[in-house]
Amino acid sequence: MTKLPQARGAGLLILAVVAAVAVSGVGPPAIAGAQEDLDRRVRAFLDASRGRWRDLNVPVVDGQTLHDIIIKNGYTRALEIGTSTGHSSIWIGWALAKTGGKLVTVEIDERRHRQALANFEAAGLSAFIDARLGDAHVLVPALKGPFDFVFSDADKDWYKNYLIAVLPKLEVGGCYVTHNVTARGRWRGARDEYVDYLFSLRNLETTIDTRGAGMSISYKRSA
Ligand SMILES: C[S@@+](CC[C@H](N)C(=O)[O-])C[C@H]1O[C@@H](n2cnc3c(N)ncnc32)[C@H](O)[C@@H]1O
User: Fold this and answer.
1) Given the CA of residue 180, which atom of ligand 1 is nearest to it?
2) Distance 108 CA to ligand 1 centre (A)
3) What CATH number is given to the structural domain containing 30?
4) pLDDT tens digits, 22-56
């Protein structure tokens, strides 16, 4: 008899979750037991693949940072430009599995895209990652958004164009992270111009994380 109010409470909770999901358009976070299983599977995949990423993939410290930014801020609508074989996507997707979000990620190279799909499957994260094959110069400006987290890691001399295309679709409070902003090399001029541009934007609060391959981390503070 005392079970009735509990059952009604549980029913109301489920209804509330279903309503929240319908309104937000993103999925609910995995529930406790399922989340623990997923965590084990992702960790096992990342451990097994440590040191074996060969396609310009982010270092582990940067992947962990991307994951932690999403968790800390409860982000749910993520975009990645430059999937490669999916190392950063896996860190981002893992965080989104916990917040109830989803990642859209774009890659132009078919072999890398296919390998990324296989990696997402092996890590158990396919449901949280929408991987698209195509030219980000075309696909990214066409994305509707809004986003609350963006990771830019494709062709460096296009970084500024990506930022200009995506910034209006980044929610206030959202975060835009760019990879390799301290790297030396042939695109150094474009990199310097990009970093100067980032710091010139009054609505962004930008810091540079130099622990890994150099990431600018920009929070959008106003429209
Ligand atoms: C540095 S790698 C990305 C690494 C990935 N974030 C990771 O950690 O696994 C950059 C990727 O961007 C892709 N790329 C370059 N230009 C592109 C474009 N115009 N559209 C989509 N992808 C592009 C490259 O093929 C390459 O796989």
Assistant:
1) 1
2) 7
3) 3.40.50.150
4) 445 566 666 788 999 999 999 999 999 999 999 99
